[in-house]
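Let's do one together. I've listed all components of the complex below, 225 residues spread over two lines.
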Amino acid sequence: DAKTTQPTSMDCAEGRAANLPCNHSTISGNEYVYWYRQIHSQGPQYIIHGLKNNETNEMASLIITEDRKSSTLILPHATLRDTAVYYCIVRVGGATNKLIFGTGTLLAVQP
Amino acid sequence: NAGVMQNPRHLVRRRGQEARLRCSPMKGHSHVYWYRQLPEEGLKFMVYLQKENIIDESGMPKERFSAEFPKEGPSILRIQQVVRGDSAAYFCASSPRDRPYEQYFGPGTRLTVT
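Okay, and this is what the predicted structure of the assembly comes out as:
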């Protein structure tokens, strides 16, 4: 699986957009980018995924660069409940389905 | 549609006892995964099962740990002769067959070995 690099931590003001970057410079053409988050002591939560097109759902937007070497997860209006560790995971479709979680980014939304 | 159910939420066992953790996947999901999170550490994959089959157990410790997902009933993660190092949060996830990387996690079982 391609390795990912994320900042250890980030702060964001409540109500502002939170932009969480992820580098995956060794990504292959058939590898998807997945984002999960884990709010303290809870089970991880699936957020969004994409291959090469930008994606949006009710939770977030995912922007993938044209060369696919990096991506950004955008929470358009962060709330205090968005404080969590965010994981960027790169997976190959069709292989064993295990998720490999790195250390992620601790996003702290400030009031 | 109820989410992934895990029970018990908290489990205390003495060293040497057995621990049984149960997981009921979301309705319509045929794939179940178990992950472990040791204190102050990240999530680690343990095992991936489909009904009556273990697909990938590459993350399972070689001894004392076993998992099953029978045709009827919940998936079970069984830890025999628990030791203090087994104290952790154990999360179960499930996914639909056609979207295996969209995994939906349960609230976890926190195992404490005294």
